[in-house]
Structure formats: structure tokens, C-alpha cells
Amino acid sequence: MITYRQLFLKTFKISAVTFGGGYTIVPVMRDVFVNKDALIQDEEMLNLIAIAQSAPGPIAVNTSILIGYKLKGIKGALITTFATVLPPLIIISIISFFYVQFQNNPIIQAALLGMRGSISAIMGYAVFNMGKNTLQKQPVFSAALMIIIFLLGYFTPLPTIALIVASGITGLIYFGWIKERLL
Amino acid sequence: MIYLELFWTFIQIGAFSFGGGYAVLPMIQKYVVQQQQWITLGELADITSISQMTPGPIAINAATFVGVKVAGVGGGIIATIGCVLPSFILLIFLAYYFFKHSNLNFIQNILKGLRPAIVSLIALAAISLTMTAFWANPQANLLSFDNINHSGVVSAAISLILLIKFRLDTIGVIAIGAIIGIILTFI
């Protein structure tokens, strides 16, 4: 068994030293809670990660919510959530205060301009890979939906939330009903 | 009430940013940059870069950054709580339901519809961020030589090569982008 204090410290430590968000932090969590401490079985952990991905929000936070809930109920979930958001909350608060002074420094301005170029390359490459992965399953459905949402998002003032809700409902109707009964 | 506005804005962002990582960017662009105008598109690009070099998900980092900028540390805390609250509540329900029935079929079907849509929404956000990276004023003449951010274009091209050919990780790519920016500005 694990105490609340240990749960907090473990999660805090993982969150504080893991850079780059969901895809790096989830394997680390798995390593700590499954391999090192044997608190959760591997198969259960995979289920938790699957559930974490079916809710909105960052996967790192979602996974830690579920690990806390699995080990110590709702109180555990509150503790792991708090421990996961605390390191970025502290670090970004500090950076925010310096950002205003940063912005007026010509060297930092120049660096940020170059970094913006890098981030657009990183995002473009990520979109390409995500698109490729998504198109591997149900290519026709996925490609059609991708194009429709892109055009609607680009040319109409429809709210993003409406596009998300509509595509979720489309998936539910298409895979849950049309594909089962009609195709 | 600025705290309430922050809280409500980030509840919406937290509730509808499916897919993790960059999926939050189109939501922040819509609600924080366009509607509330709490930060500029350029600042969103900066916080995205900073996020890659500090621990924590982009969503939490952006919530803290915007909250602190608008209403101090209290604002940062409130925006962050707003951002995680919807998924916290939903996940407790999902976990409770799953441990009882171990069946999440209808959620899987919703996700099959969401995934392609999210790729397109992130692509749209990436286009906006690229506009601010490549042009000093994206609304002005895009072909004018003076309007082009040369360091942004050059570092994007080099970054793309580093990512695809040399499989460099994102922290390394951004660090090199920073160096390119400094060199091109001061020579």
C-alpha cells in the first residue's frame, strides 16, 4: 500500500522532471507505478491510459488523476492532480513575471523570433504525423471528416466547440449505428 | 469579475481540448487570443516554445501564463483549476463506470469521430502560428520583403530538416531556433 504523502511526492517528482508533456510523462509514470513499485498491474495501467485519452485535457494530468483514483479513491485523485500541476504552475508563474522584462531585451526578442520558426516546424511535422496515423484506420471516413472540419474552421465563423461536438456525434452515429446496421 | 471570467474561459478550454498536447492550442487561440484578447498570437507561440523546455503539459503552462498575466498568481491558480476541473469530474465518472462494466465502446466511437477533426483544428492553429512566425504583420502585404521575419523562415526550414532527417528532439530543435534567431538578427 501507499500513503497519501508518498503518492504526492512520487507524482510531484515525476511531473517536475519530465519535459515535453503527455507522450514523455506517461511512460515514466508507468515505469514508476508498474515496474518499480508494482502498485498497479501492467494491463490495468493500459486501461487507465486508454480512459485518460478518452477525456479532454492533457493526458499527463488525466493519467495521474486515474492513478490517484485507482490507488486511493477520490482523495487520491485530488492529491495526484495537485502534485502534477504544481511544478508547472510554479515554474510558469516565475517565467511570466520575467516575460515582460524578457520581451524588451533585444537578444531574447531575437531568440523568441527564431523559436517561433522552430515551433511552427514542430507543429507542422506533428500535424503531418497525426494525420498519417489517423488515416491508417477508417481512411475514407477520417479523410472526409478532416477535410470538412478544416474547410469549416477556415472559412466559417463556427465556434470550435461546435465543430468538436459535431464530429464526436458524427463518430457516434457512424460507428455505433450506420456501420453496424447498414453497412 | 476577472477571476470568474478566467475560470469560465478555462473550464471551456479544459472541457473541449480532446487529444492532449497541441489539441489545446486551437481552443486557446479562439477563446483567449480572439475573444478575450488576453494574450497575442505571438505570445501564444512563445508560451508554446517555452512549454517544450519546461516540465508540464502545454494546457497547464498556458493556463498559468495567461492567468498570471491577467490577474497575478491568484489568476494563474484559478485558470489552472478551471483547466483541469472538467476532465477531473468526467474521469472520475468514467473510471467508476469502467471499473464496474469495463466497457467503453460508445466513448471509442465518439473518439473515432473526434481524432480526424482534432488534426484539422490543430492544423488551423499551426497555420496561424506560422503566419506570426513568418511575417511581422500577417495582415499586411505578405510578399513585401520588409514584412518577412527572415529568422523565423530560416529557423523553420532548418528545424524541419533537423526533425525529419536527424530526428532531433523538440527541446534541441527549439534551442537551435533560438540561436539562429540571435545570429540572424545581429549580423
- Kindly state the mean pLDDT of chain B as a whole number? 90
Structural class of chain B: mainly alpha
**Which residues of chain A form runs of ≥5 with pLDDT under 50?**
none
Mean pLDDT of chain A: 88
What's the SSE pattern of chain B?
A: HHHHHHH
Q: How much helix is in the residues of chain A? A: over 70%
- Give the N-to-C terminal Cα separation of chain A: 50 Å
Strand content of chain B: under 5%
Domain unit count of chain A: 2
Question: Largest interface, and how many residues on either side?
Answer: A-B, 94 and 107 residues
User: Helicity range of the residues of chain B?
Assistant: over 70%
Helix-strand makeup class of chain A: mainly alpha
- Using the alpha-carbon principal axes, give the shape of chain A: flat
Tell me the total number of β-strands of chain B.
0
The count of helical stretches of chain B stands at 7
Biggest β-sheet strands, sense, barrel of chain B: none
How much of the polypeptide of chain A forms β-strand, as a percent range?
under 5%
The ordered H/E elements of chain A are HHHHHHH
The stretches of 5 or more residues of chain B where confidence is low (pLDDT under 50) are: none
Describe the structure.
Chain A is mostly helical. Helix content of chain A is 86%, strand content 0%. Chain A starts with a helix and ends with a helix. Chain B is mostly helical. Chain B has two domains: 2-138, no CATH class; 149-187, no CATH class. Chain B has helices spanning 2-16, 24-35, 41-53, 58-101, 105-134, 150-164, 170-186. Chain B is globular and about 65 Å long.
